[in-house]
Amino acid sequence: MVYTGETKLFTDEELLLIDKCWDSNQLVNKNHLKERAYDSVAIKNKSTVNKLVDWFNSLKIEKIIKNPEDLILHRFYQGHYFGKHTDDYMRNGSKRKYLIGIALNDNFEGGKFYTYNPDKVTIGKEVGVPYAIKTDVIHEVTKVTEGVRKTAFIFVSYNNFLNNVL
Q1: What is the Cα–Cα distance from 136 to 155, expressed in whole angstroms?
Q2: What's the rounded Cα separation, in Å, for the pair 57 and 20?
Q3: How does residue 38 score in pLDDT terms, banded at 50, 70 and 90?
């Protein structure tokens, strides 16, 4: 399942504040492998996490009762990409269920975010507009050809939902 917001959830000022949280000294991933190339940091940013969770809960699909702690910031520099994959992994004793995120900028070329559910659909192209995908949905980010693609997202695990432990 793929869900996309209809309007911008974050102001331009909020998006700039989120982007300013990037600290390359706190890289948790500098993945430059055959199937992917990107950098990421995990930060504590309750206001952004809360806003993403509130948006998701407003969809009335299911209810997140325990907010994730980390907001993950990705940067895809020129030549970076992420091949087709899913995110339904076990982390900290629980399997990931949803990825909920936003694009922080659009001043780059390439870097398209596609999902395959089963049809190929572009998501996350509108800055500040939230999206959510089930972690078992195949998705990819194509190679960035110019500029830097910036995103912020959370992973929500099964144990973040009421009566939904895996």
Answers
A1: 12
A2: 27
A3: confident
CA distance 65 to 47: 16
For residue 44, the tally of other CB atoms under 10 A from its CB is 10
Q: Residue type for 16, please?
A: L
Pairing between strand 109-110 and 131-134? unpaired
Give me 20's structure tokens.
């300013």
The answer to whether 85 and 140 are in contact (CB under 8 A) is yes
Bridge partners of 119, per DSSP, are none
The region that residue 124 occupies, defined by phi over 0 for left and psi between -120 and 50 for alpha, beta otherwise, is: left
Instruction: Give me 86's structure tokens.
Output: 């899913």
| 3-class SS of residue 160 | helix
What is d(CA 106, CA 80) in angstroms, rounded to the nearest whole number?
15
Q: What is the mean pLDDT of residues 113-135?
A: 94
Q: pTM of the full predicted structure?
A: 0.92
